[in-house]
Amino acid sequence: MASYDVIIIGGGPGGYVCAIRCAQLGLKTAVVEGRDSLGGTCLNVGCIPSKALLHASHSLHEAQHNFAAMGLKGKAPSVDWKQMLAYKDDVIAQNTKGVEFLFKKNKIDWIRGWGSIPEPGKVKVGDDIHEARNIVIATGSESATLPGVEVDEKIIVTSTGALELGKIPKKMVVIGAGVIGLELGSVYNRLGTEVTVIEFLDHITPGMDGEVQKTLQRILKKQGLKFVLGAAVQKADVTRTRAKVTYTLRKDDSEHEIEADCVLVATGRRPFTEGLELEAIGVEKTPRGQVKVGKGWQTSVPGIYAIGDVIEGPMLAHKAEDEGMAVAEQIAGRHGHVNYGIIPGVIYTTPEVAAVGETEQSLKEQGRAYKVGKFMFMGNGRARANFAAEGFVKILADKETDRILGAQIIGPAAGEMIHELCVAMEFGAAAEDVALTCHAHPTYSEAVREAALACGDGPIHS
Ligand code: FAD
Fold this sequence. Notes:
The chain is of the alpha/beta class.
């Protein structure tokens, strides 16, 4: 039986980052992970493989649509699906091996297997019981299911199956117009699949700014994605090679059917706590199945903490990482901090969408006086040169103080540019501070400055 200062259950971005910070702070640390590789959902079946396929399919799209206009002529590339999947798997391996290397470097033990907590201070893996002064639950999440739609990971798939399909489908139905559905829908659309997205709500990307939702839907539609909104999926019937999805339109209750050779269920994710035996030791959960935490990410049982997708908040890798670092600081007797008001969210479609802080809708709900500074990428020289002039930057600032309250970007490299505004918000900056900051020309980031100028006397290039 080994004894540790900290045992973390789950080696995803929450767990592995927490482990590295614990080790850096001098704590004897182990991570229990049941998968064959470290990195969790994010590195194995989430963020990283999806971005690899988005990159590959985007490159194809560029070659097919924009190369000739730039004078790059010749045969457009064709798709070798096996090789594309091999490239994706290689990217996964490089990343997961990288985490293994960091564990060795920081002298973190990887206890292989599935863990449970038989009593506070103890973690059981197989027949072994390990002692720990502190236990961190970082067991993440799994794909949510839908009644009447049985996942087989072949014809009816979750995001995990969609990242390793045997062949590129001719027709795909995506259930759910959230981030994962739109990203993977975009991948297959660019590879030639006819993609129809069915969404229960009347708009895509729930929680996003309304103007961004409409703009993104319009652009994706232009790219070939079809949308059925306000539709409740009833069931999916599977034959040997195809599926038939039945849905009713909420406006008139009319029933419709659509056939496809692949159905992606992308209706969200739910916290994963199976096998931990939390009920037996009294770790409380929310009605939605998340592990309940209080101050300092403490659960209802002293000495047991929880972070990442398994607790409340946005299910994002960087949110899990931030909590991982913060809880390590807490355990080491220091101060751990996460600013939940400034967690960016990014959709890696083309164009990308990125948002942070308040939206116009949330400010209206709060009855808060605000002003909007908006700048279209059409007025940005770099974006025009790169066939990327669709979309805009929108900055929301307090009407009186000019303090930045939130921002949305739909456009090229939005996921990179949003951080300028995150940093500005962390420093409590006014829109004028961003407007007075010299931005290099020609960059997409100039659009951020122009939007900040639009909060004051007005942008230059519109
Ligand atoms: P996880 O990454 O889920 O890791 C939990 C780990 O715990 C798993 O490896 C699991 O095997 C292990 N585990 C569970 N129970 C036990 C047990 N009892 N014993 C031992 N091990 C156990 N987020 C972003 O921020 N950006 C993105 O672009 C993005 N893209 C995504 C794309 C897809 C297709 C998906 C599915 C998700 C995406 N996410 C993205 C979400 C992101 O992957 C998660 O928010 C993130 O992985 C959560 O980290 P975590 O550490 O909380 O949990």
